[in-house]
Amino acid sequence: MNDQTYVYDGGLQGWDDTFTEDIGTYVTVTGLKGSDGTGYDTLRSITVIGQKKNAGEYENASEPSAAVIGRNRATDDNLAANYAITYVKGKLTITKAQVTITAKDQTYTYNGELQGPAGTYTEDLDQYVTVSGLQGTDELTDITFRTADEGQKKDANEYDEQIVLLSAEVGEATDNYEFIFESGKLTITKAPLRIKAKDRTYRYNGSPQGPEGTYTSDFGTHVTITGLQGSDELTGIALTGQEIEIGEYVDKIVASDAEVGEATDNYKIEYEPGKLIIKKKLDPSPGTGDSTRTLLWMSIMLMSAVGFGGVMWLSSRRKRRVSK
Predict the structure, then answer these.
(1) Partners of 267 in beta bridges
(2) Are 233 and 225 in contact (CB under 8 A)?
(3) If DSSP codes are grouped into helix, strand and coil, which group holds residue 297?
(4) What does the pLDDT look like over 215-265, one tens digit per residue?
(5) What's the rounded Cα separation, in Å, for the pair 171 and 143?
(6) Shortest CA distance to 271 belongs to which of 252, 286, 256, 249?
(7) CA-CA distances (angstroms) from residue 120 to 115, 169, 177, 178, 232?
(8) Which residues lie below 8 Å from residue 11, measured CB to CB, with a gap of 6+?
(9) Which of 116, 143, 196, 220 could form a disulfide with 272 if both were Cys (CB 3.0 to 4.6 A apart)?
(10) What number of CA atoms fall less than 13 Å from residue 140's CA on the CB side?
(11) Residue 66 and residue 277: Cα distance in Å, rounded?
(12) If DSSP codes are grouped into helix, strand and coil, which group holds residue 67?
């Protein structure tokens, strides 16, 4: 019996039939008698059984039987009874099929945490890999990437061949495959960060007024912030925008050069300017708010000096003078 070799294809493989043509493909024959002037004996047919599905080496798996021997010029005779036939079984080999699993490139937006595929996945596998070479009805059942410490990244950047596959399973058919893994690219894009300079209002005092310089604290006084990730905090901001004269200065207060500690490069920062308003100086003349407050203060001081009763007495005498 000739040995057979196949590549795993998800189905049964091996000879399992009665063959009447190209018999030399299936068996090797020795011992047939030669010509005696009327012809020569030949193997007309042979039956071979023995199929396997899974990859492996199967000694003596192919078994020949039921040989039919005839003279080359005859059609109906079977001379097998004239021979003591010994059937030798053959070896069936099914080699593993190659399957290529490629990690898909993955893109995330910076969020202050480690990101990227890590560990073992058993669902939605097509989100993480592409597969070629699976046979029959076989399906990928799980994949394993490097651990989070090795495979994930936190900071915004492009990491070539960062997504690395370690193993894969194809259910019960796993051992029928030789796996080829190809790595993928991990990209973490910058997170959007919006910083708006707050509108500021001052009273005219003859000097430049408005924020100016670099600030490292009390950020809530100067700006509003939208988009910080995780535990990140603003650590510095530059502001410019001063004027002396009375007026409303739209987009005068300009923020720039924001810093978020070591995470600054993980942000795409957009700035929005604020309005600067310088109002008129308060008029101290009678009738204004300041003069009213001054009279109130003087009344309180007078009450403190002469007592409440004295004030009432002064008030009553004033009324009597008016009545006369």
Answers:
(1) 191
(2) no
(3) helix
(4) 999 999 999 999 999 999 999 999 999 999 999 999 999 999 999 999 999
(5) 11
(6) 256
(7) 15, 11, 19, 19, 30
(8) 53, 136
(9) 196
(10) 25
(11) 108
(12) strand
Give CA–CA dist 153/146, Å, rounded: 12
Q: List domains and CATH numbers for the chain.
A: 4-95 (no CATH), 98-189 (3.10.430), 192-279 (3.10.430)
Phi then psi dihedrals of residue 80, to 5 deg: -60, -30
In sign, the C-alpha dihedral spanning 287, 293, 299, 302 is: negative
Show the tokens assigned to 163. 């997504």
- The DSSP output letter for 153 is B
Are the C-beta atoms of 51 and 13 separated by less than 8 Å?
Answer: yes
| 140 within 8 A of 125, measured Cβ to Cβ | yes
Both tokens assigned to 23: 């018999």
Q: Which residues contact 295 (CB under 8 A, 6 or more apart)?
A: none
**Do the beta carbons of residue 244 and residue 208 sit within 8 Å?**
yes
Q: What is the dihedral of CA 51, 52, 58, 59, to 10 degrees?
A: -10
Enclosing H/E stretch for 58: strand 56-71
pLDDT 10s digits, 53-105? 999 999 999 999 999 988 765 566 788 888 999 999 999 999 999 999 999 99
Q: What is the pLDDT of residues 132-187, one digit of tens each?
A: 999 999 999 999 999 999 999 999 999 999 999 999 999 999 999 999 999 999 99
Residue type, 246: I
283 versus 156: the higher-pLDDT residue is: 156
Question: Dihedral angle at the C-alpha atoms of 312, 315, 316, 321, nearest 10 degrees?
Answer: 160
Place of tokens 């007026």: 247
The DSSP-derived string for 198-259 is PPEEEE--SS-BS--EEE-S-HHHHEEEE---TT----EEEEE--B-SSEEEEEEEEEEEEE
* Helical segments of the chain, H only: 148-151, 219-222, 289-323
Contact 54, 175 (CB under 8 A): yes
User: What amino acid occupies position 300?
Assistant: I
